[in-house]
Design goal:
Elements (H helix, E strand, L loop, with lengths): L44 H15 L3 H8 L3 H11 L8
Helix pairs in contact: 1-3
Length: 92
């Protein structure tokens, strides 16, 4: 038997939906994003700077990016640290 010739190449996956139209995506029922809250208090500035410095070293960033990371406010540094170091008690 000769191979079947496709009439619309690349659209064969739509046959699963029973029509040539893609399914409608409904975003009304989706759960809104929630902000993370950290349970541990932020350490003193010197300790935070030391921890954050270790984290930045691990990331192996270029000079410009390192400067940008260290220029962030301390609250943002703490959020970044907590998001990267999950075993630490600051995770949610």
């Amino acid at each position: 038997m000769p191979p079947r010739k496709r009439t619309r190449p690349g659209l064969s996956f739509l046959c699963c939906f029973g029509s040539s139209e893609p399914p409608e995506i409904n975003l009304k029922d989706s759960v809104p994003l929630q902000l993370l809250e950290f349970s541990a208090p932020m350490p003193p500035a010197e300790e935070l700077h030391a921890r954050f410095s270790e984290l930045v070293d691990e990331l192996d960033l270029t000079g410009k990016n390192r400067e940008a990371m260290f220029a962030l406010p301390v609250e943002k540094k703490w959020q970044i640290y907590c998001s990267k170091k999950k075993p630490f008690p600051c995770a949610v």
